[in-house]
UniProtKB/TrEMBL annotation:
Residues 20-263 form the NADP-dependent oxidoreductase domain. Pfam families: Aldo_ket_red. Keywords: NADP, Oxidoreductase. It comes from the Bacteria. Belongs to the aldo/keto reductase family. The keyword NADP applies. This is Aldo/keto reductase. InterPro entries: AKR, AKR5G, Aldo/ket_reductase_CS, NAD(P)_OxRdtase_dom_sf, NADP_OxRdtase_dom.
């Protein structure tokens, strides 16, 4: 049982990654993001997840500089967007992200979506970045089982992480099992289903039992499935509340009840139909 915000999962190359992080999708590049990141770091968060597509890497870099935490204690993730995929363009995209973040290295660099015909050469560029020490670990985002199998058939390095949409209405059981079997750490984006599941009667009932919020119940459910969670919030109180999930544990029956809410419902794009 994960009992503290400082606890980490050990990735397949030995790098340690926090179980809980702050997602910054749709956060503005100025004061909004700086305030949120500083609040998160004060609460104990050490993992921040951004992307080229979010257009706020400069804000992330500025905030972590000003937070006064040693760089080696932080875990910074970014991703390259679909129009940058390909070998040379990926190397260029990485350098641009690194410069915007103003960091000597990135902890985790991800392929944002599995663009058909492109993600294999993109992965070769990630392998180069990893071997040269510019990135501590590399992974993918929004990859289905067939994408992972296709990628791994021609790669030297198995992805360390697969960041996917994961919440009680999209449990992706087969993908989670595949990732566990291949030592790929699954990570949940939109773990709270963009807030659309938080008034569900079952979650309200379980939350009442533990004197917790439904958000805390869902994030605890993530951790007990051994899935890293990166809830997004700009609200300081909510950022703190999302971290208050280490002092209770869901029963096996409650885990099954939440699993049973699955409808294969996506709030975001379908990885098999990328037209963006």
């Amino acid at each position: 049982m994960v009992k503290n915000i400082s606890e980490t999962t050990t990735l397949n190359n030995g790098v340690k990654m926090p179980w809980l992080g702050l997602g910054v999708y749709k956060m503005g590049n100025g004061q909004e993001i700086e305030k949120a990141i500083k609040a998160a770091i004060q609460t104990g968060y050490r993992s921040i997840d951004t992307a080229d597509f979010y257009q706020n890497e400069e804000g992330v870099g500025k905030a972590i500089k000003e937070a006064g935490i040693p760089r080696e204690e932080l875990f910074i993730t970014t991703k390259m967007w679909n129009d940058r995929q390909g070998y040379e363009s990926t190397l260029k995209a990485f350098e641009e992200s690194r410069r915007k973040l103003d960091l000597d290295y990135i902890d985790l660099y991800l392929i944002h979506w599995p663009v058909k015909g492109k993600y294999k050469e993109t992965w070769k560029a990630l392998e180069k970045l990893y071997k040269e020490g510019h990135v501590r670990t590399i992974g993918v985002s929004n990859f289905q089982i067939h994408h992972l199998e296709d990628l791994m058939a021609d790669s030297e390095i198995v992805p360390a992480v697969n960041q996917v949409e994961f919440h009680p209405k999209l449990t992706q059981k087969k993908l989670l099992q595949f990732c566990k079997e291949n030592r790929i750490q699954m990570e949940a984006w939109a773990p709270l289903m963009r807030g659309r599941i938080l008034d569900h009667p079952l979650l309200l009932q379980i939350a009442g039992k533990y004197n917790k919020t439904t958000s805390q119940v869902v994030l605890r459910w993530d951790l007990q499935h051994e899935v890293v969670a990166i809830p997004k919030s700009v609200n300081e109180n909510r950022i703190a509340a999302n971290a208050d999930i280490f002092n209770f544990e869901l029963t096996e029956e409650e885990m099954k009840q939440i699993d049973a809410l699955n409808e294969n419902y996506r709030t975001g794009g379908d990885p098999d139909n990328i037209n963006f």
